[in-house]
Amino acid sequence: MSRSRYLRRRYYNLFSHFYDRFIQIHARKDESGTRYFLADSAALSHVDVPLGLDICCGTGAVLLALANRYPRGLFVGYDFSRGMLRAAREKQSLGRIRLAQGNAASLPFPDNTFHAVSCSYALYELKGADRSKALCEMKRVVRRDGLVLIMEHEAPPGGITAFMFRLRLKAMGSADAKEFVEAGLSPFRRIFPSVSLHHTPSGRSRLICCRKC
Q: Rg (Cα) of the chain, in Å, rounded?
């Protein structure tokens, strides 16, 4: 494991102890609306038993939204931080959620497995090569008629949110992350033949919907 990856894992293991509280303070009412916006956009109501994968799942907020929206489904949370997975495991109340630890750039799932794959507020923290590999892996494991859903921040205009956003960019390698944030949809269009952009009702986040065919 590289030193930078080791340090990032340690950072998130520690951050997991107060991550949810931090999100509640700076996201406020937008947090719940954003994750349910993603869950609704997955459009899985027509599937008898939806299978979903949430990459870089953190403490499991998106997983719980998916499980609440689609109670017949089975959803897998995948993250490299043991601390984040511990926090997710402690608060999940639904039996049809599974958690696994690993690298987003190398997923241990067969091709064409999931009806939907999601990743929220995490891609810009990956380095360029790992980011592209992670997107290719999401494309590989989603079904041909499924969706890959990527939630990212709109650039915050100011205040504490903007400060924390800049801090995260700096901590994760600001030059590479800044280039990705400013690239718009082009990193996704290099991998997926169909890409569309949607904005959350609050306007604070954007949802990128990708199809593999």
A: 16
Question: Please, what sign has the CA dihedral across residues 53, 54, 57, 60?
Answer: negative
Please give the average pLDDT of every successive group of 10 residues along the chain, which has 213 residues. 58 54 52 86 96 95 93 95 89 79 96 97 83 96 97 70 62 61 86 95 89 92
205-211 vs 142-153, strand pairing mode? antiparallel
Q: What does each C-alpha distance from 141 to 79, 118, 182 come to in angstroms?
A: 16, 11, 27
Cα gap 5→7, rounded to integer Å? 5
CATH of the domain at 174: 3.40.50.150
Domain containing 143: what range? Answer: 3-211
Count the domains in the chain. Answer: 1
